[in-house]
Design brief:
three-stranded antiparallel β-sheet; ClpS; Ribosomal Protein L30, Chain: A; ATP-dependent Clp protease adapter protein ClpS; ClpS_core; 3 helices; binds L-tyrosinamide; Ribosomal_bL12_C/ClpS-like
């Protein structure tokens, strides 16, 4: 009669499926010639909860370099924030633009 000691132990062949870490996305502020600096700073503070100092620095980076990374976060949050910021600018009649792109 077989006993529990007769159990044949085979090496585990199934590999645990590795969960992919979700990609992070950058929200990018794009410079333009029309949106006032103060308005850009206000939007950064309101939508991205930045301090006056950080907002000013990010605005100035975009103004000088053409673009600036505002924040890196999950895709849905990045897209929602970018849209909120663009909508605020649209309402005020400014062409201020934000884009999102996956991190390298
Ligand atoms: N270049 C704008 C100006 O001189 C200010 C500005 C800065 C606009 C950053 C957009 O992403 C921007 N009034």
């Amino acid at each position: 009669m077989p006993t529990k000691d007769d159990t044949i132990l085979l090496p585990r062949t199934k590999t645990k499926p590795k969960l992919e870490r979700p990609k992070l996305y950058k929200v990018i502020l794009v410079n333009d010639d029309y949106t006032p600096r103060e308005f850009v700073v206000m939007v950064l503070k309101a939508v991205f909860r930045m301090t006056e100092e950080t907002s000013y620095r990010v605005m100035l980076t975009a103004h000088r370099m053409g673009t600036a990374v505002v924040v890196v976060c999950a895709r849905d949050i990045a897209e929602t924030k970018a849209k909120e910021a663009i909508d605020l600018a649209k309402e005020a009649g400014y062409p201020l633009m934000f884009t999102t792109e996956p991190e390298e």
